[in-house]
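Hey,

Quick one before I head out. I ran the complex with magnesium ion overnight. Inputs first:
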Amino acid sequence: MIKFILPISLIVMMLLSCGEEPKNEVKMNNTVEVNDGVISYEEYEKPEPTTPSETEYYEPKVPVVTPAKGLKAPSDAIVLFNGTSLDHWVHAEDNSPAKWIINKDSSMTVADKTGDIRTKEEFGDIQLHLEWKSPLPVQRDGQNRGNSGVFLNGIYEIQILDNNDNDTYVNGQVGSVYKQGSPLAMASMPTGEWNVYDIIYHAPEFNDEGGKTKSATVTVLHNGILIQDHTEIKGTTPYVGWPKNPVHGKGPLLLQDHGDDSRVSYRNIWVREL
Ligand code: MG
């Protein structure tokens, strides 16, 4: 008899549960847990809050940051270039001191054919701010007009290019994840005026076998306009070939000397580690 009762009771319970409304399993607690810097609500059963204070919390305190103002970086940023020196930078090819030109207006300019420069420091997830300017007078066309770029982790290029009245392949135009993701808009200032890139970058993750378990992502604001919206970076950004996925940890930020006398200028470069 018991043999039959148990299965029948289970079937009845299953039928009843099919008709139930899904329960709201996540209840907010007015305490929080901090796990690897991520604040999460503890899940537990509790009646619906009936007072405002039940959904308000005061710890942990949020750090106070003095915002950027003009050419001054936020108070918690690592300043990589403010016009005074290139101490944070070396040439990518041989690690020699960076030989790009420092100008009187707190900017620097690519010195012809001296090669890419990279930061001495290495970074993972970051918020990056940099300002760049295409050179005047305008020279050449397509990819050979004011071409530079910022390489996240040293290997993923966000394109910098003078695209004003200068078409090229859209996945290689200004603001693209080079040859992977077109920008959502072309938001450049007129040639010779300063542009701002604000970039949020999350590095990829790899397992012990060398397989990628999570792609890098990038969000880019170009002069305040969203042009990359949490875009997946599929791998490296070569001129020829498919993206590759070498295993890596933290890496430098790299600025490109495109090698064609594209005298792009930079100023006010700072980074906040996330
Ligand atoms: Mg480039």
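The radius of gyration is 25 Å.

Talk tomorrow,
K.
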